[in-house]
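TICKET: design request
STATUS: open
ATTACHED STRUCTURE:
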């Protein structure tokens, strides 16, 4: 799946079944369901899951919690717009450059 196909899938009622947990979390976030996205992300015990979890807390505005999760992911909080961080995370999770 490429980025455009992923973005187009957000028009559907549910995410494609082949998506990873991280991509499913980001899908629900883009769909406007932060709670569902967060519920998924908080149960992903990987650095990628921590990066998505951090992004969600940054979006929520709880920066101390976001910073904790960024550290778990091995990153510092980025100084870029949230929409750009979302796009970069999706591209990374899709395995795109």
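STATUS: resolved
RESOLUTION: sequence designed for all positions
ATTACHED SEQUENCE:
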């Amino acid at each position: 799946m490429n980025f455009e196909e992923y973005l187009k899938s957000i028009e559907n009622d549910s995410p494609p079944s082949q998506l990873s947990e991280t991509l499913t979390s980001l899908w629900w976030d883009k769909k406007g369901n932060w709670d569902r996205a967060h519920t998924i992300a908080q149960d992903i015990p990987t650095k990628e899951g921590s990066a998505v979890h951090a992004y969600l807390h940054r979006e929520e505005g709880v920066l101390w919690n976001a910073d904790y999760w960024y550290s778990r992911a091995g990153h510092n909080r980025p100084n870029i717009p949230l929409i750009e961080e979302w796009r970069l995370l999706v591209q990374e999770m899709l395995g795109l450059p």
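CLOSING REMARK: The chain has a mean pLDDT of 97. Helices lie at 3-9, 21-31, 34-41, 47-60, 63-73, 82-94.
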